[in-house]
Structure formats: structure tokens, C-alpha cells
Write a structure and sequence with these properties.
Elements (H helix, E strand, L loop, with lengths): L2 E8 L1 H9 L3 H11 L3 E7 L6 E6 L3 H12 L4 E8 L2 H8 L1
Antiparallel strand pairs: 1-3, 1-4, 2-3
Length: about 90
């Protein structure tokens, strides 16, 4: 399946939720899996974004649905990028 990079920024409400219930992060990951994608890796980061997640998903439409579903809750803002593994990119360019 295609790989996607999801960069997330918590809203004020999202920060309050995570502070009170840090396990909510894992619950959201299970929700993502129930929507058809798999979280391959996830990192809490410093800077402009709070989390970077690497997802395996069937297609752009599935990732768009996930982004809208999570973003509509008002706790997170999401930017998602499709990613091409470097070895595949090299094959494409050759």
C-alpha cells in the first residue's frame, strides 16, 4: 500500500486532551486502523508540528477521509503528504 506522512498540530483543545489523557494518542491510532490505514511509525516532535506519523493506506481517498474525520473534531490540524520510498523513486527516474 502507499505510504503517507501525516504532520499534526494540536489545537488548544487537543493539548488539554493529551495532557489529561495521553493514552488518547493510541486510541486515535486504533481509529485510524479502523478507517483502513496502518500507523507504521509515529513521533512526537518539537517545532511547528506536534506529531509526525507514517501511515500505510490504500489510496489518497482513504487518507483524505482520515484527515477530515480527525480534523473535524477540532483537536488537531493535519497536513498529509504522499511519500515515495527512495528505492522506488530511483526506479522511476532510471
Amino acid at each position: 500500500m502507499p505510504v503517507y506522512i501525516m504532520m499534526s498540530t494540536l489545537t488548544d483543545e487537543g493539548r488539554k486532551t493529551i495532557k489529561k489523557h495521553p493514552e488518547r494518542i493510541e486510541e486515535v491510532n486504533r481509529e485510524i486502523e479502523n478507517m483502513g490505514a496502518k500507523v507504521l511509525a509515529q513521533y512526537a516532535v518539537l517545532g511547528q508540528y506536534d506529531f509526525i506519523s507514517i501511515l500505510d493506506a490504500p489510496n489518497n481517498e482513504a487518507v483524505a477521509k482520515i484527515s477530515i474525520e480527525l480534523g473535524s473534531r477540532g483537536t488537531v490540524q493535519i497536513i498529509t503528504f504522499p511519500a515515495i520510498p527512495v528505492d522506488e523513486f530511483i526506479k522511476i527516474m532510471s
